[in-house]
Design goal:
The complex is a heterodimer of chains A (296) and B (354). Chain A is built from 11 helices and 12 strands. In chain A, β3 and β4 form a beta hairpin. By secondary structure, chain A is α/β, with parallel strands linked by helices. Chain B has 2 domains: 91 residues, no CATH class; 211 residues, MetI-like fold (Orthogonal Bundle), CATH 1.10.3720.10. Chain B is an all-alpha fold. Classes of the chains: A alpha/beta (296), B mainly alpha (354). At the A-B interface, α2, α4 and α7 of A face α10 and α11 of B. The complex binds adenosine-5'-diphosphate (ADP) and magnesium ion. The site of magnesium ion has 3 residues of chain A, from α1. The site of adenosine-5'-diphosphate has 13 residues of chain A, from β4 and α1.
């Protein structure tokens, strides 16, 4: 499986271009975390440079460059099939699990390319957590075991499991609801609770970045609100990238927004900016049309 | 709120979806007319015997149901009325051979069963002695040992083959799947011959129980492998993704996430494999054969088993020995049914649900 990561073999003919449409969001404005952007000359947070993605011959994502500053929330928006999930999975090396997939470009994590040959992919995944569209607690595990599954699977020692359990569930906004039934199966929870359980599970590894792929698309409004509160809470101590189809959600939770679009060909990053700018005066007409709900 | 809470009228629970007395009445009338029509059909056509009754009754029910639904016009179409009858009749038809088989074995088998049948062996008795002496304890234990060792060999191999096909999905996956498919078509006597020629003739030079286990393992492997493969395929991609996203390697994902998730399914696969081989006779005749009492010697001695006991009793051919064969068959069927029921229970209690 992992021999299909090939950044070099499939894409030999392709020279990754970084320059043309760098839609970096790091330059102009004063974000609340602007002081974190550069430390000792290397970028902090997560930065994609000229990233492409392929599924076999299908070119799904073209030349995406964007910076996610530390401790901010960035919303990825765009119509279905424009490559948002693909891009997200490239950010923690999950893309390579798809047979015959390929990529090009660089993803800098604290200034270092995570696709460099010496980098350990499983280590990257423990530091960059992911929450999926469909809640996916482990069926054979209890609620408590689910939360602590990360350290166990990644063979990380936990000093005080009970404390970690409570801390993660509290941060995910689930502790009060489940503290009396930690031994129940994870699948006995409601959909919204399961999703917060999955967030708690991702937190147990103390990731620096959290990637969420439409985490609320299967949830009711109440649960959605809880998850959004959780995201805003978490963003004080970690970098968050969230894919969402919900414009209100994007404006509620995100500091930055990035708009992806595919015109039948590979998906591209059209525009990225402060969320307020994206919604009030986007530079690109297609962004304006999309955020106002005229297509997609 | 308060206004509603104060006026509590007692409510009786109903089950409007269940059959009412009216439908019961219709059913009775239908049954009556069907019986009349069936008698007429039976008497005035060439239909004959039990089968004749059966056919004429089913035809009558369908005709009467169709007419009644046409006349009353109770909303259901004729097809809706007749379809359940056709399906039930088909089900009953399929059940006939099964029930008659089990019925025959039970009827003929109970005669020879007494407590000693399960505790005695055949060391001092012969097959044609009266049914109140001798027993099959040695054959029961022998079957458990031979099948048990076959399971210890075949179940891990079968599950590993399935893991290779589904989890690793390596270059040889299609070849391995083809091989297991081909193996499931191997006639059992060929498996016996194979072990006879490769193990007994060339290595051990005498028949022994372990060779029997090997022969059964060959037959068991494809069942376990293919059932396990289906079980593993049901594990959703999302579950594996969740594990990988937590920094787990493929090996840990398989061991800590996938296998626990499908544990009951793999147990079912193994028990199905056991049920598949427990009654095999031909391969055991060529390998472990038969011995009149229980022995622990797996490698140097032949060993009794239920199928070979039945075979031996049949060959003796006297009235008493035939009765013994039926009784041993009954015990064998009971063991296989018991295992299948356990497999069902474990499989039904799939993880994921509570
Ligand atoms: N596993 C896959 N195999 C092949 N093609 C895929 C796979 N996943 C996604 N794609 C393709 O990549 C493109 C982008 O998909 P995706 O990233 O899921 O879009 P989004 O999340 O924005 O809806 C689509 O054209 C889709 O068909
Ligand atoms: Mg998606």
């Amino acid at each position: 499986m992992s021999d299909s990561i090939s950044t070099d073999s499939t894409t030999e003919s392709f020279v990754p271009s970084i320059t043309p449409n760098v839609a970096s969001v790091t330059t102009e404005h004063t974000s609340r975390n602007a002081e974190n952007l550069e430390v000792n000359g290397t970028t902090t947070g997560l930065e994609a440079r000229g990233v492409h993605a392929w599924f076999d011959k299908h070119h799904a994502l073209e030349d995406v460059s964007i910076h996610f500053p530390q401790n901010t929330v960035t919303g990825l928006i765009g119509p279905s099939g424009c490559g948002k999930s693909t891009f997200l999975r490239l950010l923690n090396r999950m893309h390579e699990f798809i047979p015959k997939s390929a990529m090009a470009g660089e993803v800098l994590f604290n200034g270092e390319d995570m696709y460099a040959s010496h980098v350990n992919a499983t280590d990257i995944r423990t530091r960059i957590g992911m929450v999926f569209q469909k809640p996916n607690p482990f069926p054979a595990m209890t609620i408590g075991e689910n939360v602590l599954a990360g350290p166990k699977l990644a063979k990380k020692k936990v000093e005080n499991p009970d404390d970690l359990l409570e801390e993660c569930l509290t941060r995910a906004g689930l502790w009060k609801e489940v503290k009396d039934r930690l031994k129940a199966q994870g699948s006995s929870l409601s959909g919204g609770q399961q999703q917060r359980l999955c967030i708690a599970r991702a937190l147990a590894l103390k990731p620096e970045v959290l990637l969420l792929d439409e985490p609320c698309s299967a949830l009711d409004p109440g649960s959605t609100l809880r998850v959004e509160e959780t995201i805003v809470q978490l963003s004080q101590s970690m970098t968050i990238v969230i894919v969402t189809h919900n414009m209100q959600q994007a404006s509620r939770v995100s500091d930055y927004c990035a708009f992806f679009l595919s015109d039948g060909g590979p998906g591209r990053l059209i525009e990225a900016d402060l969320t307020t700018n994206m919604f009030s005066n986007p530079k690109d007409e297609r962004t304006a049309n999309y955020v106002q709900g005229r297509f997609g | 709120m308060n206004a509603i809470a104060t006026e509590v009228t007692p409510v009786t629970p109903r089950k409007p979806w269940k059959n009412t007395r009216a439908t019961l009445k219709t059913a009775t009338i239908n049954g009556f007319f069907s019986a009349v029509l069936a008698t007429a059909l039976y008497t005035f056509t060439g239909l004959d015997g039990i089968l004749g009754w059966y056919v004429s009754f089913i035809i009558s029910v369908m005709v009467v149901m169709a007419i009644v639904s046409k006349v009353t016009g109770n909303g259901k179409s004729i097809a809706d009325q007749v379809a359940p009858v056709v399906i039930s009749a088909g089900f009953a038809t399929v059940m006939i051979p099964w029930i008659s088989l089990i019925g025959t074995v039970v009827q003929r088998g109970v005669k020879g069963i007494y407590t000693g049948f399960f505790t005695h062996d055949m060391l001092v008795n012969s097959m044609d002695e009266p049914l109140n002496v001798g027993g099959i304890s040695h054959a029961i234990i022998g079957t458990l040992i031979i099948v048990g060792i076959a399971t210890i060999i075949a179940a891990p191999l079968g599950i590993i083959a399935a893991l290779y096909i589904v989890e690793i999905n390596g270059k040889a996956a299609r070849f391995v799947r083809f091989l297991t498919q081909a193996m499931s078509g191997v006639p059992s006597i060929v498996a016996g011959l194979f072990i006879y020629s490769t193990v007994i003739i060339t290595v051990t030079h005498k028949n022994n129980a372990f060779a029997g286990s090997l022969a059964l393992a060959i037959l068991m492997l494809p069942t376990v492998a293919r059932t396990s493969e289906e079980v593993l395929k049901v594990v959703p991609r999302e579950i594996r993704d969740a594990s990988y996203a937590l920094g787990a390697t493929q090996v840990r994902t398989t061991l800590r996430v996938v296998l626990p998730t499908v544990r009951s399914g793999l147990i079912t696969a193994t028990i199905l494999g056991v049920a598949r081989v427990a009654g095999e006779t031909a391969p055991l005749l060529l390998t472990s054969q038969y011995f009149v009492r229980f022995t622990t010697n797996m490698f140097n001695s032949t060993m009794a088993s239920l199928p070979t006991y039945v075979f031996g009793a049949l060959r003796t051919g006297t009235e008493n020995s035939l009765a013994r064969a039926w009784s041993a068959s009954l015990v064998l069927i009971a063991i296989v049914v018991f295992l299948s029921v356990i497999a069902r229970l474990l499989g039904g209690r799939s993880t994921g649900r509570k």
